[in-house]
Amino acid sequence: MAGRHRRPPTADQAVLPEDVDLRLRAITQGRTVTDEGVVALPGAKHPYAYRHLYRPDGGVDRLLERLAPGPLHPPGPYPADQTRSSAAPPSPTEGIAVSTADRWNDHYAQGKGFRPVSEQEVTLLAGHLGPGAGRRALDLGCGTGEYAAALHGLGFTTTGADFSKVAVTTAQDRHQGRDGLDFQPLDIDRGGLTLLPAAGYDLITCRLFLPFVDLVPTIACARHLLAPGGRLLVTTPVTERQTPGYRSSGLRTRDLDLLRSFDWAAVAQYPLDDLLCLALTR
Description:
This protein has helices at 20-29, 101-109, 119-129, 146-153, 165-174, 215-225, 253-261; strands at 33-40, 47-54, 60-66, 83-84, 136-140, 157-162, 181-185, 201-207, 226-236, 266-272, 275-281. By secondary structure, it is an alpha/beta fold. It has two domains: 20-88, no CATH class; 107-281, Rossmann fold. Strands 7-6-5-8-9-11-10 form a seven-stranded mixed beta sheet. The longest helix has 11 residues, at 119-129. Residues 1-6, 11-16 and 69-99 have low confidence and may be disordered.
């Protein structure tokens, strides 16, 4: 009966998955560990952005998104081990800004707002987008609703979505009674975008928003929500142009390169005072 019972392999014989350290870290620390970046796959013409979520229960969620050809830029920088936890947001001094609903609820509950929408921005919107004519728009990270209201003023049927229920309630109060303009709380950074209709929007805007979320999955989901020919407008400070203390509120140049490298039909950009506006067409 030789061979029926085999001895377990010794430590030097055992073959463990390459990501076992990330799995164990998530389990032992009781928090989700995230690994993401950009890779070139053998035989593939396009690079791919990947994101792996290692959960405390031992499970793994994986996302892979094809990018347009071009140089590979990781959506970082991240700490040396290339992992970070969405359960324990690091401080801005670590180079990563991650939002939570509680954080933004506190922000808006204290009466704080965000940078006001300028006439120059509205003029740029009108010139680039033309009349809304009832087209469907989604404003991600809408805050108290001023940018969404500007889109609605151009004729778009507009939904504003934000982490913060406090901000959404304020937006609803300020802009009530406007047909075709609504606001909803949405946990954008933790799967909330999957609740929205695929190919359901002709325009998605991210104004001063993307630095506070996980970039790759958010853009991948936004592309999924755009109708063919739809546009994603990203308005952001550029980190390298920001003064110390404000750099966590902008996107780095290589983050912008990553945005451009997704498989867009067209890419355009416009200077906007000290901001940059990227117009990305699906």
